[in-house]
Specification:
Number of helices: 9
Number of strands: 12
Structural class: alpha/beta
Order of helices and strands: EHEHEHEHEEHEHHEHEEEHE
Oligomer: single chain
Length: 282
């Protein structure tokens, strides 16, 4: 697999420009075409961007046009300066459904972690989760805090042998081939009853390392003992901090129930508390 089209979600949030700049670098690394998809909240009851936002419809429309033009100008400036081939899209329609439709025609999506302190980062309830779970494409989510440094140089793979994890690894191969260091992280089973069963996750990690070797990716295996009271999500966050890794590859879990997005515990923890970029696939 290779990335020939990269789609970046653009909005009016404070981190949108950073997301665009990251996507430009990613597209250049992979000689890919970049699509800038401008999708913002269209809910009349959305959080106001500032306390003095006018209720006058004409003024609101003018403000919206001005924000779109600013976002468009930055996208054009960033892509022209880099020489990256690109296109701009600002479709009309329900944000999640519209973004999912466009994302299905890209190889990888670049999204931002929701910032609870930035009203402009709110697109819709479960917006990033919906794109990850419904687009059928891998998504690179960038944290709203801190700088994006050393992306893809040091990579951790959260491996449990599941379908979602296998999909995420395959989707991440273009990034893994360029990495300086790849570590497969396995977590020991809490109810192991023998040495044989205790080694099962680590053994699965070595099997994945052998698979990656056929794709020109050298990977080590890091087995983490299970600690009672520490969730898998928290354990992965601890490993991220200890290794200063720039990317975590993770299989995303979840399902829809009564119009609500129900995510697995690990996925939910990482979306809420991520400290580095995360590549997720479902």
């Amino acid at each position: 697999m290779s990335y020939k089209t990269v789609l970046v979600h653009i909005d009016d949030s404070r981190r949108s420009h950073t997301r665009v700049d990251f996507a430009v670098d990613l597209a250049l690394k992979h000689n890919a075409h970049l699509i800038g998809l401008y999708v913002v909240c269209q809910d009349a009851l959305r959080p106001f961007l500032n306390v003095e936002e006018s209720l006058n419809l004409a003024v609101q429309e003018a403000q919206a046009r001005a924000r779109l033009e600013r976002a468009h100008d930055h996208f054009l400036s960033a892509t022209r300066l880099s020489g990256c081939t690109s296109e701009w899209r600002a479709p009309i329609g329900p944000p999640a459904d519209t973004a999912i439709l466009h994302a299905r025609h890209a190889d990888v999506i670049v999204l931002g972690q929701p910032d609870p302190a930035d009203p402009a980062a709110y697109i819709g309830k479960h917006f990033p989760e919906d794109l990850v779970m419904s687009s059928g494409r891998p998504a690179i989510l960038l944290p709203y805090a801190g700088r994006i440094e050393r992306f893809g140089e040091t990579v951790l793979i959260a491996w449990d042998g599941s379908r979602a994890a296998a999909r995420a690894v395959a989707d991440a191969l273009p990034v893994l081939r360029l990495a300086h260091s790849v570590q497969i992280v396995t977590i020991e089973q809490p109810r192991a009853t023998s040495d044989e069963s205790a080694r099962t996750p680590e053994r699965a990690g070595h099997a994945l390392a052998a698979y990656l070797g056929h794709h020109r990716v050298r990977a080590g295996v890091l087995s983490i003992p299970h600690v009672w009271g520490v969730s898998t999500g928290a354990a992965l966050l601890n490993v991220l901090a200890d290794t200063s890794a720039g990317l975590l590859v993770l299989g995303a879990y979840g399902h829809a129930r009564f119009q609500e997005r129900v995510l697995g515990g690990v996925t939910r923890t990482l979306l809420k508390s991520m400290t580095a970029a995360v590549l997720m696939s479902h």
